[in-house]
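Supplementary Methods S3. Input chains for the assembly prediction are listed below.
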Amino acid sequence: MDITTYVDNIQKTVDTTLDGYLQPKADIPKILIEAMRYSVFAADKRFRSILSIASCQTIGGKIEEILPVACAVELINTSFFIFDDLPSIENNDYRKGKLSNHKVFGEDIAIAAGNCLLAYAFELVINDYDKENFKSKIALRLLQEISKATGITGMVSGQVVEMTSRDKEMDKYVLQYIHNHRTSALIVASVKAGAIVAEATVNELETLIDYAKNIAFAVQMIEDYLDADGDKNKLSKAAEGDIQMRKKTYYSVYGREKASKMAHEKIFLAKSYLNSLKTPDLLFQLADFIITYRIE
Amino acid sequence: MDITTYVDNIQKTVDTTLDGYLQPKADIPKILIEAMRYSVFAADKRFRSILSIASCQTIGGKIEEILPVACAVELINTSFFIFDDLPSIENNDYRKGKLSNHKVFGEDIAIAAGNCLLAYAFELVINDYDKENFKSKIALRLLQEISKATGITGMVSGQVVEMTSRDKEMDKYVLQYIHNHRTSALIVASVKAGAIVAEATVNELETLIDYAKNIAFAVQMIEDYLDADGDKNKLSKAAEGDIQMRKKTYYSVYGREKASKMAHEKIFLAKSYLNSLKTPDLLFQLADFIITYRIE
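Predicted structure tokens for the full assembly:
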């Protein structure tokens, strides 16, 4: 199977699973499900869940074992987009060419939907792994990875530094902090989770973390680059927004050419770590896919 | 030990533990910790955590075993208060006589703090129970209880129905839904978690759920009653807010006298369930304490 077909198949599997998790139910407010679905199914390449699943499969695990975590990661990612777009944060009217959540459902519902996606991400992992035949200890480790990446030591802290650094001078270290927390943490956690569920050795886990950190860097730079260059109907509104809000991006700090070069270097570096794995092929191809197809 | 001393001691233990969880750290934005601490340590009687701990002790468990969950529940509760107070939701400038979180830290930081408290609640339970000597299966059950009470089947849904029913006619069933989801779910989960950690029998668990549901009803009615009667410097701003926003409360639907009578009846009923327990004394006294001292 070529990598494009693989990616297509995984995207479909993840979307179908997410669709199952987000079905309307009699005792849940209809608008809450609608608001969650609206942002979860806005154009997204499922980059984080693909990496998580590919990592699991590379170590010999099955897709069913990691699928709930992969979906949880997508819900968490969506939750942060909803919050980021709010008027008091980045004030984006559009995200990936669609009206942002609060523009469609109102700020109160958007906040509830963001909140709910975060809580539901944990809930579905907890529920899906609470089975007799699954090792509870592994389930707790998976939860630990995604919770560390999300909260006080992860995405929220990255978001807060982003908020508080907007009107200050550009600073590489601040940019690095924001990237590590806001973007990289969840990508690394996704890859780690895939490895943990497949019971990777310590060496395999270390290899995959190195791979993930470099991939995350490349993804962030590509996203910044696309955002800055982007047509707001096709991509996000961040291009315009970033300049207005003086948001720190790799693009704004390093410039387009250097950011693009760095992304290619990081992808090269990510691949170089894979040599120690028995079956590195999938992750190798995925790295090339990212730089070529500009996923996410 | 009399019940007032017991409650005092538990409040102090919970506050000390929360203080430990919320210490500043070099790599976490200072303002994020400050914003979380501000609302977590705003006047609160720690009602939910006291019930959780008392439930655990009644079944023969130790306070250390339930303390992380008890603290997590307080963080979740605080998170919802921060969100509720936001301009786009209830627009409260004050909460329990203090400026609301967004009035002090700004809306963006308040949203991040609310978000972070929710994620951190899960994280600290996951971390604290990820120990060799603790049963992972029990940890997952605890997480299941608090996640169910928080998200799509719990508090968020209650919050959304509250948002969407504001400008509609009063309706007992809507009020009941809001109460069950927004308030009762977390109180019942707190009590259940205490019982689960102490490895309660099925009968004990059922008894405690019945107790908790009635206690939750009473607490909600007392809160509504206090809010509606309240001096906004001493209590919450909800008194004024509720009328402006036409928020559904037991007070507004049933009136003061009937709401108070119902609260007393529920406390009576809660106590009646306790007879089947070996050592019902603590929970019995706690029920009386609530109605007398109007804990929240």
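Strands of chain B lie at 94-95, 98-99. Residues 230-239 of chain B have pLDDT under 50 and may be disordered.
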